[in-house]
Amino acid sequence: MKNQYIGYIKYEGKGVENGIFDARKSAQALLGFDQAVRYFAAKEEPHLLGKDYDLPVEIKKDSWDIFLPILQKLMTPEGVAGIAGTAYIAKAAGKAATDGLFETGLSKDIQKIFQGAIVSIQWVVKIAKHVGSFKRDIKVNHNLQEDKVEIANSNNDMIIVPRKYFEQYKTCPENILDKLAENIAEERVLKIGAFAQDEIKEVSIDEGSKAIFYSGKVDKEIKDDILCPELQDGEYVELEGTITKVNERANTLGFQYKDYILTIEPASSNVTEYKGQILSNQSGHIFCKAQIDGRVSRRGKRGEFLKKPRIIFTSLTPKNEKNDDTLF
């Protein structure tokens, strides 16, 4: 297994027996893993910041584990086509390739970048647990080797940390692991693992240390405001709704889905090309009902999580409407 994957997170204990997990908790875990890995990957390779790329994961049966596969295979067009076998994912990977994610000058080793992201998460967990918080005014001994620091906690216990990870701990958002930590409960532990050479290194967060990583801010400020939480980032969907407006300058359409107006945009064309498909032939209506097929995006230009999803559609099909002339 260690030759197939870079790292993983898993929940063990009460509530996840036989791989069964509440749907909302599963969504939170996936979003949390995606958010944390993207953040620290951009620290490893700054050119990844704001890039629109797919981060493939695998959820293992008979447990509830999210595995990050070796991305040298999955993030290239050839690897995606060969392993995933879907035209949509291959097309998305092809777009990422044209954006420069796979060029030697930018990402010398994709696997090392994302492996470094997992290790960074682990060190942030180790330091925060050692100190007991994300406070920045901690006792640090810099008089070690140039690339290491010694950190003391309130009991004056010491740990030696690579300077690189200490700097990441100091600058990362305090709620970077909020979504992952939210699912921790009595008798349910979060484990974060990294595959390195011939061994697996793992750190854990249990209920006793949950408060260090879970501020509750996501729960209070964001969770209740998330529109259409069933539409997960990166998911390929087919939605039915009604076109509500056209914005030629932004190259987007308004799309009423259920009770919400979503922004949708064509993946590789101009909205003006859909003029003949979005107009209604019914009196009293300008735009028609339609079905769109495309990818859900919940990432802003800076990689931030979006409460309201955007749909990057690859097809738009008007739904059958009775022409008013047939009524007479």
Task: Give keywords.
OB fold (Dihydrolipoamide Acetyltransferase, E2P), 2 domains, 328 residues, 10 helices, 5-stranded antiparallel beta sheet, single chain, alpha+beta, 29% strand, elongated, disordered C terminus
Helix percent band: 25-40%
What gyration radius follows from the Cα positions, in whole Å?
A: 23 Å
Describe the biggest sheet?
Answer: 5 strands, antiparallel
The neighbouring-strand order within the major sheet is 2-3-1-7-8
Number of helices: 10
* Order of H and E elements: EHEEHHHHEEEHHEEHHEEEHEE
The helix-and-strand class reads alpha+beta
Straight-line N-to-C gap: 68 Å
Q: What is the overall silhouette?
A: elongated
Low-confidence stretches: 72-108, 218-224, 324-328
Q: Care to count the β-strands?
A: 13
Approximately how much beta-strand content do the residues carry? 25-35%
The overall number of domains is 2
Mean pLDDT: 78
Task: Give your account of this protein's structure.
The protein has helices at 23-44, 71-74, 77-83, 87-98, 110-131, 163-171, 178-181, 210-213, 217-222, 275-278, and strands spanning 5-13, 58-60, 65-69, 139-141, 148-152, 158-162, 188-196, 199-205, 236-247, 252-257, 260-266, 289-299, 305-318. By secondary structure, the protein is of the alpha+beta class. The chain folds into two domains: 5-224, no CATH class; 228-327, Nucleic acid-binding proteins (OB fold (Dihydrolipoamide Acetyltransferase, E2P)), CATH 2.40.50.140. Strands 2-3-1-7-8 form a five-stranded antiparallel β-sheet. The chain has a five-stranded mixed barrel with strand order 9-10-11-13-12. A hairpin with a 5-residue loop joins strand 12 (289-299) and strand 13 (305-318). The longest helix has 22 residues, at 23-44. Mean pLDDT is 78; it is low at 72-108, 218-224 and 324-328.
